[in-house]
LysR family transcriptional regulator (Janthinobacterium tructae), 305 residues
Amino acid sequence: MDKLRSMEIFVAVVDAGSFTAAAEAFQISPVMVGKHIKQLEERLGARLLARTTRRQSLTEIGLQYVEQCRQILAQIAAAETGAEAMRSTPRGKLKITAPVSFGSECIAPLMADYLDAYPEVSLELSLNDRTVDLVEEGFDAAIRIGKLEDSAMVARVLRPYAMVICAAPAYLARHGTPRTPADLARHECLDFMQWTRHVRWRLARSGDDDGSPVRESRFRSNNGQALRVAALHGFGIVMQAEILMAGDIAAGRLVPLLAGYVPAPRPMHLVYARDRQPTPKLTTFIDFLLERYGPAATPPPATLT
């Protein structure tokens, strides 16, 4: 028999004053009520009720135990009420992980609007270019760029992740403007350390079998913002996410290059674990992000910073 059910029936017997009244409340027979009480007594190794042919009363242990049962049942009811509330209203902590560039340039600026719309939700945004295990590391959702391999996740399509090649006007004035990928061999090209050998400066129609027409970079970083700043200071040519460079290009601080050779945009998805009943905090975030960065969303204007 279920222990919690037996506790509920025991409390009902005490409150109603009889097995018959408790049996009617739970729509079971008085005999079954007696079996629930007997099971509790066997577990405890003590009598809970002193029964005679005319009346029943709590033993000393029964008096203490019934109060403990009331507390336990009240805590369970509160927990269930809280869980039900979280299922009906967006509330609680939302943990999201995203690549550094997209997270800092796109997700973070929007979060004020999301949190204003849902004041009972708090957000924890982790920016990391590695692929995290959502379940093991306790994240509600992740933004992933590139081909997906984990079929166990639900994937919602976002706008493709486009790249751009650019340099500062001062750099181009000193070193000239490259017209083809082959010209990059004479330039300082800033390297992103997360790229593999087969991705590093692999440009369309470059005609280079190893995909590396550039010389060994003198400045490498695992952070796109660091490469952006180096390019702004005129050190070299950078290839990074269009979203990271759009404001500088719009302001004329960086000049786009080799537009016909830029790598094709990569797919981008919002992924989350399969759940038959996802919480409102997650479903509202999904809808919020798709409205702004889904395939049909209008791209936001470049921010001039």
The first strand starts at residue 49 and ends at 51. The chain is about 40% helix and 20% strand. Residues 206-210 have pLDDT under 50 and may be disordered.
